[in-house]
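Next comes the chain:
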Amino acid sequence: MAYRCATCGKTHDGIPDLSFQRPDPYFGVPESERDSRIQANSDLCTIDDEDFFIRGVILLPILGQVDHFGLGVWISQRRENFYTYVNNFDTREIGPFVGWLSNRIPFYEVDTWAMKTIAHFQGKGQRPHIELEPSDHPLYADYSKGVTLDRAWSIVHSREPRAG
């Protein structure tokens, strides 16, 4: 299964991961105030030096495949854990740290906001793997039981989040 990446223009094998570019609270800050209130890059985000977010990946198993389908999401972190991660970005010798899902994933009818998560750090510049705490949410069912290949492709072809 090959696809052409909208970001780099290259052809890749497998199903593309999807990602959110920012945590949802970022968009709650008026655009005219973002430069003064928000510090953000592709992996870290702070708002007013009070709210702290890291970007990681939820891996959904694809039934009958060895590959996983990745959802790049943001989770909140306590200040101490956030800075531990910032200061130890290239090691897996920290954590795991509890956080709360900070994106509403539009292809789930039930709101995903503030689902409890655990960040497992990978080191070597890789984003943390995000584990979902057990719940009756459909996202947790997909995470723990897997999704069909058709379901994964239907998510890819939805408009949000952007492929990344």
Observations:
- The longest helix spans residues 79-87.
- Residues 14 and 57 are 16 Å apart (CA to CA).
